[in-house]
Amino acid sequence: METMSLMLVDDEERFLSTMKKLIARKGYEVITAPSGAEALEQLRTHNIHVVILDVKMPGMDGNQTLKEIKRLFPLVEVIMLTGHATVESAVEGLKSGATDYLMKPTDIAELLEKAEEAFEKRKRLEDKIRVAQARTF
């Protein structure tokens, strides 16, 4: 069975390193990126299933990054994460294709539960695509 591969995207290095250690201890593959641009580069070279994406970042913010992820890698599930949540940013993220939205500080168990749900959603979608492709042959 395939293990979920996660990417954490946040401009706070301390948050990235702490969360990476905690998630890796639970047996997941974790990649980190300090910016939206770096996240897009990582997605080009790694098979990432779920991205945990900070909303407020300098340069390309989370909502801009989300839109690019969904444009270039439509099967990647994205969970928005922020310490500065507003109803507007949550609605914008969900309209742009985010699977869920979490507030910082978030409990590691809750984050992993949401990530697993997103991973299951992706696997169901991949199964539907395989069935549709098989029917065309």
Structure report:
The protein is of the alpha/beta class and 137 residues long. Helices cover 53% and strands 18% of the residues. It contains five helices and five strands. Strands 2-1-3-4-5 form a five-stranded parallel beta sheet, sandwiched between helices. α2 packs parallel to α3. It is globular and about 50 Å long. It starts with a strand and ends with a helix. The mean pLDDT is 91.
Runs with pLDDT <50, length 5+? none
The percentage of residues in β strands lies in: 15-25%
User: Count of DSSP E strands?
Assistant: 5
N- to C-terminal distance: 26 Å
Percent range for helical residues?
A: 40-55%
The arrangement of helices and strands along the chain is EHEHEHEHEH
- Using the alpha-carbon principal axes, give the shape: globular
* Largest sheet properties: 5 strands, parallel
**Biggest sheet, spatial arrangement of strands:** 2-1-3-4-5
Tally of alpha and pi helices? 5
Task: Give the radius of gyration.
Answer: 15 Å
What do the pLDDT scores average to? 91
Class by SSE composition: alpha/beta
